């Protein structure tokens, strides 16, 4: 049901005649929270304990000092986290590691994606991956692409390409089982195993609602809505740090993007360093002539000068604000930079305040941090405070394709100013985010909350927003869908886990939103209060966030 539980089990043998340190390394998706960890040595189980991060770090360092085992979670690049545990294993003995994590599968380009990173950083003899999917509706698309190296993440792979070693069975229309097993004969692995799928959409506008044990979740992904024409301004960094390869990559990316605009769209391009310069004085309709003209102008850009982020954003908002309320259109700013504010206003707090004050029309500002030197935290705060998201673009992995992919994700708006309301037995104070500035094609809005009646099965809802055809205001009372007993037999989850699955999903969404609030906030007192809320909720439902897993054993 789109809330995935993944369990990594690794049996590692020390076939030496002396003890040695063994490392268990797992790469986790960025959105995943750890929900359990244990290791078994000589038949004795050592469970992990969830602690506040600073406390856990102290325990880990003390364990290392005393020659005991310890573990920690570290942030890595390319949207992942790394879980790592070291343990001393006696001669001719082995250790079994078991890590469990959970995540809400994100829908992109019309497909839910479940990625498992296989990167143990040591030779592997036998590899097996088993995946069981149970959905609330019929699974209409199921794809298992080839098992491939992680550094090919942004390579274009034909949609028809399949994993020849993956066995797929369909016990029912709503379920699927995928098994991958291979003798890899001691090879080092650094690969990804991916599953992509989508479900049949019911014709009613409201989507699917599930309820269980005092919680509910609402999945909203309407079909058959037209794309709202967009007015888009690209703001491109042409400061001296963009010289050479970076500038060439951006120019190639713009060539892809220009051809992905559609009839009815309007656009303009601004470059900036210590000053700003527009391609045209007004938004231009998308056609063959403007494609050629804009690309010729982009190709002529020369990287030079400092980086004045404050001026670029204020000038961009000044340009877009007069047209932002044009009926039936969706204004968007896409901002790309590879550095920090070194010219003009350089104080982060002032830049953030200036942008918020200038953005009275609530135009989404999507930020792209190009390369390792970009101030991603600043860009993330700018985007979170301005109705959008930021993305890190990695130079080593086909950045032009990353830029194009991100652009395609965030520019096809089907609805604007979408608000979900719930009545009756729903505790409105517990709702996760229920207001979405934009709903994009191929994605999904997910809202969860608590019910005042633990056994309630009927949910009354109302959705308002604007589509390409005009305003919508739809509401009704829906009989919530129930998870079947089949999941109890086939999944990793116990009966107790199944009963708490919607509580976990609600907590997951709540924690993610609080973490975004922490990132966006510039007030330390507020950050501390938010952090305490995260820790309290994480400990309650056992989801590692600002927390760490501590697992120690006396050697």
TrEMBL record:
Origin: domain of life: Eukaryota
Pfam families attached to this UniProt entry: VIT, VWA
Domain VWFA, residue spans: 231-410
InterPro entries named in the record: ITIH, VIT, VWF_A, vWFA_dom_sf
Gene3D superfamilies per record: von Willebrand factor, type A domain
Domain annotation VIT: ranges: 1-103
Organism expressing this protein natively: Octopus bimaculoides (California two-spotted octopus)
This protein's name: VWFA domain-containing protein
